[in-house]
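User: Can you help me understand a structure? I only have the sequence.
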Amino acid sequence: MKRALAVAAVAGAAALTRRALLKRVDRSPLWPLPALENPVSGYSPRRTLRAVVVSRTEPAEGVLRLVLESDELPAWTPGAHVDLTLPSGLVRQYSLCGDPAEAGRWTIAVRLVEDGRGGSREAHERLVEGAELQLRPPRNRFELEPAPSYAFVAGGIGITPILPMLRAATAAGAGWTLLYGGRTRASMPFLPELASYGDRVTVTAEDEAGLPDLSPLAGIRPGTLVYCCGPEPLMRAVAEAVPDPGAVRLERFAAAPPAEAKPFTVELARTGTAVEVAADESALAAVRRVLPDTPYSCGQGFCGTCRQRVVAGRVDHRDDLLTDGERAGSMLLCVSRAAADRLTLDL
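Assistant: Let's start by predicting it. Here is the structure, written out as tokens:
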């Protein structure tokens, strides 16, 4: 009888432990890291959204516009982007460019990048009407802040997060202007929609008039916020043209240009293995030579998949995702590096 009671007690404790563990895993975006009150990625990996492609159009050369519908799609705000899982399993980030007032309906646009990493080509080839997709809830690092006036600057596909901002600024009664540049008019999506705003929008095609004229940004009124999304040279030029750096808000579709990099050593705490990271490679690439199953996805410091806990050493954080609090004990291996000669990871 005592043996039976002991077995039952152990089994009950094991069940409770398992239940608690599953709850912890469900709360934590990157198990086995501790659950964060506000997860780095903004979602639990167990929470996925499903949607169907109901419309596929090409608003410009090399640009695919997809309208997605589902009762699962939550509300979003201008500037938000979503992680979309492609049929191959690749995860890519796209700005929402539709109308936030349309419940259960999202719109994204994908520029085909011929020399890219394959995600845009897969989207163009495989995301057809009727296709079922998995997504993660929207995140917003490019929130439209209240202001009396705005100066918007977009380059090419960088118009996507700006579009809903124009609607919101108009609805709020704020003054605004948009400078929209691209290589050719044929390659610039959403020109018909922008035409309805009249002379508040200036369109500059490089093959017609060269690069956009940013000189008006030097004379913007105090209180005006400047929002820019586009190629890195454009964003750098905008930041230099605006007198007040605090007025500038930037959104990147690719990782920021790498700063000077030096080689360093990563120690894997669980085995004591030392891995050398060359100046021209990422910590992720070096670690995966030893631990090929180390997870990653975007490879550009956006999605958080490769986040790992740092046991010792200072980190040179180069991502656009982690908060200061989250950076205190972890790093994204794909872009961040050691601030000195050595780091120890909980791997």
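Now, to help you interpret it: Helices lie at 2-27, 119-126, 159-171, 191-195, 206-209, 232-241, 283-290, 324-327. Residues 4-8, 13-46 have pLDDT under 50 and may be disordered. Let me know which part you'd like to focus on.
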